[in-house]
Structure formats: structure tokens, C-alpha cells
Amino acid sequence: MSAADPTGAQLLVVIDPVARRVDGESTRIARDVLCAGAVAKICLPSGAEEVARAVARRGRRRTVVIGDDRALLRVVGLLHRRRELADTPLAWVPVGSLPAVTVARELGVPLGAVAAARAVLEGVERRLGLLADDSDGVVLHGLHVPSGASHRAAAVPAGGGAPWWSPAARTARTALTLLSGPSDRHPLPGCARLRVEADGVLLADLDRPVGRVAVSAVDGLAHVAIHPRTGTHPLRTHARTVTVSGPDFRYRADNRVRGPVRTRTWTAVPEAWRLTLPG
């Protein structure tokens, strides 16, 4: 066992090319901290195919992603499609500025390179839920339909660090923020003709346009909020599966616009993936 690796931890560190380009200094610092604290194999992929090959050959190493939300989603999506996600321990050092690391902030991953790298080495593995869709895609944080009605990311408090809560409290706060929607001072733009079903129960239909539909994975369920175009309170519920259909629509999931599609079903999967977070 190496002196630099007192616990026997072995890491596969996948450094996203975008991270190397946009913030080489933070990327270097994170790599150096990880290499000083564990036996680390460094992977510098140039594209998605090289990421897939590296992850497929990870062996018993814990996979660490250095990069923004998209970099992590690429690895999580790959493992999900390979049906290996639930059995693969992951860790993450976010590199980038908001909104490119919004998912990291919402999950409670430190946004500073040193703090995040130390959390990789000293943190606690937690099993997290997600939303899996019928096209073999995943949503880690939440989604909005239509895509133009996404909520704005809250500003990071002065001092550079995101606020810290216990995992349970942070999850509840995330759900509340995602599902509460814009205030009356920020009315929803336009409207959408959507049919929304939760566990087979019809919540909205095409003849009654809505302002927005928001879905997030919390405590093993899909939390749903349907915001009307007017200022009345949204309809809220939770379910195992949620289906949205209607004329071609786009939706924003994990801060990325996807679609257009005419129908999409999301299923809440509890404890679907393993991520190391601060203890």
C-alpha cells in the first residue's frame, strides 16, 4: 500500500477536455490533490468515445469526474445505458462557473477545486435517486416543460461557497425551489398545451393550457408541480411515473434543453446511483 494512499483507495480520474480549457488551474489543483491522497490513474479523453473506453476499463477503481454538469451527466448516462450505474461508485470535482455547475451545487458537491477534491478523498458515499426516461436518458436534478420556463439559479452567497445543509434538508430545499416556480413578479411566459399523467391519473389535458410543469426526484418519488398560466397556486403531487405529451415540445433537464418530443415518460428510481459527498 502506497504512503500516498493510506486507505488503499484507487481512483480513475476522468478530466473533461472542456474543464482543461476553461479553467486549467482549478483542474491542475484538483488533480494534484487527488494524486497526493490516493493511487490515481489519470485519463485525458478528447471525446465521448475515449471516456467510454476508460470507464469500461476502470476495474475496481472509483471513477472521479473533473468537469462541469455535462461531464458528469455523460458518465452517469453511459453507466445507466450499460446497466452498471447502481454498482459503480462515483465522485465529482466540478470545474466551471454557474450555470454550468448548477447540478453540482444542488447535489451539495463543493464548487471549489480543493474542497471538492478533499471531499472525494474524505467524504461519504450516498445513494441518490434520479428520473429515468423512456429513451434511456437520466435526469439527476429536475426538469421543466416547456424549456423556456426554467427557474433561475440562485446566486452563490458572498464568500464564494454554496450554503451547506444536511443531505435530507438539502434535498427538501432543492425540491421546494424547483417545484415552487417563479413568483408573481416573474410571470410564466406563454402557455403550453400538455397532457400530464402521474401514475395513470390525468392531471392536465390539452384543452386547458398550463404555464409550466416541473418534475424532480426526491425520496424515491417524482415530485410534480403543474403551474397554471394565471397566478393561482400550482397543483402538486408525487408519483412513480410521470408522462407528458402534446404537440412537439422541448424541456429543460439538468439545465440542458432537450427535444423536441411529442411524449416522454419519466420513472423515479430510488437509490439509483452512488456519489461521494462531504460527510
Describe the protein in words.
The chain is α+β, with helices and mostly antiparallel strands. Helix content is 26%, strand content 37%. Helix 2 (24-37) packs parallel to helix 6 and helix 3 (48-56) packs across helix 4 (69-81). The relative contact order is 0.16. This is Diacylglycerol kinase. GO terms for molecular function: kinase activity.
Under CATH at level 1, the class of the largest domain stands as Mainly Beta
The main sheet comes to: 14 strands, mixed
Number of beta strands: 14
Mean pLDDT across the residues is: 85
The geometry reads as elongated
Fraction of residues in β-strands: 35-45%
What class do helices, strands and sheet pairing give? alpha+beta
Helix percent band = 25-40%
Number of helices: 7
- CA distance, first residue to last residue: 25 Å
Low-confidence stretches: 1-8, 149-189
Rg estimate, integer Å: 19 Å
How many domain regions? 2
Order of helices and strands: EHHEHEHEHHEEEHEEEEEEE
CATH topology group of the largest domain = Tumour Suppressor Smad4
Task: Tell me what the CATH architecture of the largest domain is.
Answer: Sandwich
